[in-house]
Design goal:
About 60% of the residues lie in helices and about 20% in strands. The protein has about 230 residues and is of the alpha+beta class. Helix 6 packs antiparallel against helix 7.
Amino acid sequence: MSEHKKTTEIQENKKEDIKEGIRELEQIAAIRKDMEKDQYYLLCQYAIGILEAKAKIIDEQLSMKYGREIMRGFSGRVKSPESIYAKLVRKELPTDLETARKKLNDLVGVRITCLFLDDVYEIAEILKKQRDITLVKEKDYIAKPKKNGYMSLHLIVDIPIYFGDNFLSKRVEIQIRTLAMDFWSVLEYQLMYKRNVSGAEKAAKELKNYSEEVAALDEKMMKLRNKIDKI
């Protein structure tokens, strides 16, 4: 291939990359615009607030029951337009908010962190028994971690929202995990954005090994706590 043809091909590829980048930005902007309609963000925050109130009550009840600290943190988030777009692309789905509402279960998410492994499951059981929470799906990544080592208990639930005279159901992903699991996931999240950087593959393998150590540590700390309780 001549130098002229090579140069022309490179320029054409650059043009296509620019066009693709523009299309991506336009689609993300369209998702953002739709999210600003119909009080979308407000309703999502209502759902987070309802679960935060429930978590606080559960924490107080279990703390009184066991005489110790149970939860260490609660956080909630509404998935960003950029994250929605990226997930729809990965799933090879149309990149619009309507599709996201129908196909994605984690547009709204909350995370509960606690000290011990058995607390994770007890909190989950209490939430599942609440009459105004409808369990859609449960994913136990503690019993069966993801291939990369990720561990957490996920509950996909529908939460009723009363807004004026209207009623609607909001889907939320609840993640419940120990502090050790949460610490591990923070590093995994950072690594996710460096997949193609030199040394990332080696770090990923090392992180997966640490996941097994985290699981073993959680078991040991729970058993030690039980011994201390009997003293």
